[in-house]
Automatic annotation (TrEMBL):
Designated name of the protein: ABC-type metal ion transport system
Main location: other
Family of the protein in this entry: Belongs to the bacterial solute-binding protein 9 family.
PANTHER family (alphabetical): HIGH-AFFINITY ZINC UPTAKE SYSTEM PROTEIN ZNUA-RELATED, METAL-BINDING PROTEIN HI_0362-RELATED
Cell location: Cell envelope
Record has Lipoprotein as a keyword: no
GO biological process: cell adhesion; metal ion transport
Length: 314
């Protein structure tokens, strides 16, 4: 995608200029984090997106202040950080990112900051992307397997212990307790989806973000585009999805909360499949929405998928 590369390079240059200006203004080139940012004495942990913030809060308990750079509902792959984000990051004590190329903007974001950061996906069993221009690259959506998120939680406990050694035992105990809840949700998800018959075992979504969930639950994953980017849902991609749905008589198809469902509605219009509902992957909802926590997100998606594929109404 030449267009994509061009815009990326331009963004990076513009972004670097903004970053330099702000670094100079704040005088952050030589100093570390600033625990007093935000009005209490707790160290500040910034995550790149809402799912990580929720997991981090479970591990941190009340000992750290955890915030997400991107807000609920944001598109996280191609996010463009604001000067406010950079200011906030310069004052944080620790930054957590997913890694696996999820946050295309992140390397540039932390490059000039003297703030430690940890990659929470370190050690997960990575699945490659099967097609498109991303073929062979890691699929970044590792958190769609609660078993992987157990590794995320352990990595966070280690990073928090370095940041605040006096509470290391508490972080470890919190991660252990949270990991038990993750196991329950993982088991519930697999058992819920196990009612699907062989014919119903196809998960057709907008983005190819469900590889890990599909692997865990024994579903065939089909998507319109591999990873959210500036060019997605080409006519060929939509045609391919339509053919798959027709050939396999797929009863329902889905789209994610952070992207437009218009391309999938085209698939619905051209086939006998119903629109099965909105799935959450790249972002939690607001606190009063359907998935304010990661555990809610996994339960919600398993329920929506099972209901729609077995012929129920969403
Ligand atoms: Zn995604």
């Amino acid at each position: 995608m030449p267009n994509f590369s061009f815009r990326r390079a331009k963004d990076v240059r513009r972004f670097a200029a903004v970053l330099t200006a702000i670094s100079l203004a704040l005088g952050v080139s030589a100093c570390g984090g600033n625990s007093s940012a935000g009005g209490d004495d707790k160290p500040v942990v910034l995550t790149t997106f809402t799912v990580l913030a929720d997991v981090a809060k479970n591990v941190a308990g009340d000992k750290l202040r955890v915030e997400s750079i991107t807000k609920a509902g944001a598109e996280i792959h191609g996010y463009e950080p604001t000067p406010g984000d950079i200011r906030k990051a310069a004052q944080a004590d620790l930054i957590l990112d997913n890694g696996l190329n999820l946050e295309a903007w992140f390397a540039q974001f932390v490059e000039d900051l003297d703030v430690p950061h940890a990659v929470v996906s370190d050690g997960v069993d990575v699945m490659p992307i099967a097609e498109d221009s991303y073929q062979g690259k890691p699929n970044p959506h590792a958190w769609m397997s609660p078993k992987n998120v157990q590794i995320y939680a352990d990595n966070m406990a280690k990073a928090f212990a370095k940041l605040d050694p006096s509470h290391a035992a508490e972080f470890e105990a919190n991660a252990k307790a949270y990991n038990a809840q993750l196991q329950t949700v993982q088991d519930e998800m697999v058992s819920k989806l196990s009612v699907l018959s062989e014919k119903q075992r196809a998960l057709v979504t907008c983005e190819g973000a469900f590889s890990y969930l599909a692997r865990d639950a024994g579903l065939k994953e089909v998507y319109i585009w591999a990873v959210n980017a500036e060019q997605q849902a080409t006519p060929q991609q939509i045609t391919r999805a339509i053919e798959f749905v027709k050939d396999n008589q797929v009863p329902a198809v889905f789209c994610e909360s952070t992207v437009s469902d218009a391309p999938m509605q085209q698939v619905v219009g051209a086939t006998d499949a119903k629109f099965g509902g909105v799935l959450y992957v790249d972002s939690l909802s607001e606190a009063d929405g359907p998935v304010p926590t990661y555990l809610d997100l996994m339960r919600h998606d398993a329920k929506v998928i099972t209901t729609a594929l077995t012929g129920g109404t969403p």
